[in-house]
Amino acid sequence: MNHTPRKRFGQNFLTDDAVLHNIIQAINPQSHDTMVEIGPGLAAMTRLLVDNVTAMHVVELDRDLVVYLKKNFSADRLTVHSADALQFDFSAIPVPADRKLRVVGNLPYNISSPLLFHLAELAPHVQDQHFMLQKEVVERMVAAPGSKAFGRLSVMLQWRYHMELMFVVPPEAFDPPPRVDSAIVRMIPLSQPLPCDGARLEQVVQKAFSQRRKVIRNCLAGVANEQQLIAAGIDPQLRPEAIAMEQYVALTNLLGE
């Protein structure tokens, strides 16, 4: 198909066979899997997955690509959802009672963070997620406390997932080549995340990282006082990126009492 990648959809199509092989190896599809791919594009990855799983779904926003996918795959092999992944209800995909959904995709860089937060709501129903993202975003996701990359994305996702940067993908593996390196991340939902109100944790973390250069006592002024920070095991003089996810959860629970 002669398809011009569309900038407004953040389209960069993966064309490197060796990289595709490495991604499929990382995903390790099984015959009993129900798999959903976000943004299949010209189906480079879809073709390698569809014959190896029980049920394959794709979510595609570009209507021209939806037509292409429906034309090239029979409906019994591939279920095509013409939808915006940010609005799509992934929990509506039918999965056998004893199984969980597996999610994969080359995520558009311009919506990667909101899409990750949207999918986080689905975590209890997901076996794992393998995504290609901007390398810098993956580094933020897996960052440890104390590093400059550690922030809101790190805390909110580490609360729900075990995450691992699998390998880096260079720009020349794509058409058109993006201006940045990409990386593959594996995300496995934690079977028992620390008990916490997610919406309240999000509010605390967002406030904490809204002024990164200030110490946490000043960042959270009006939300938590010094005694509450100390009670949650937080040094009030630390900067927000030096505080671990577990401490943010402890503080959120303390404020909710």
Q: Can you give a write-up of this model?
A:
- The chain is an alpha/beta fold and 257 residues long.
- The protein folds into two domains: 183 residues, Rossmann fold (3-Layer(aba) Sandwich), CATH 3.40.50; 59 residues, Helicase, Ruva Protein, domain 3 (Orthogonal Bundle).
- It is built from ten helices and nine strands.
- A seven-stranded mixed beta sheet has the order 4-3-2-5-6-9-7. It has a two-stranded antiparallel ribbon with strand order 1-8.
- Helix 7 packs across helix 10.
- The termini are far apart.
Q: Architecture of the largest domain, CATH level 2? A: 3-Layer(aba) Sandwich
Write down how many β-strands occur, each being a DSSP E stretch of 2 or more residues: 9
Give the domain tally: 2
Morphology call: elongated
Strand and helix order? EHEHEHEEHEHHEEEHHHH
Could you say which structural class the secondary elements and strand pairing correspond to?
alpha/beta
> N-to-C terminal Cα separation, in Å?
58 Å
- CATH fold title of the largest domain: Rossmann fold
Strand order of the largest sheet: 4-3-2-5-6-9-7
Average pLDDT, to the nearest integer?
93
Count of helical regions:
10
Broad CATH class of the largest domain: Alpha Beta
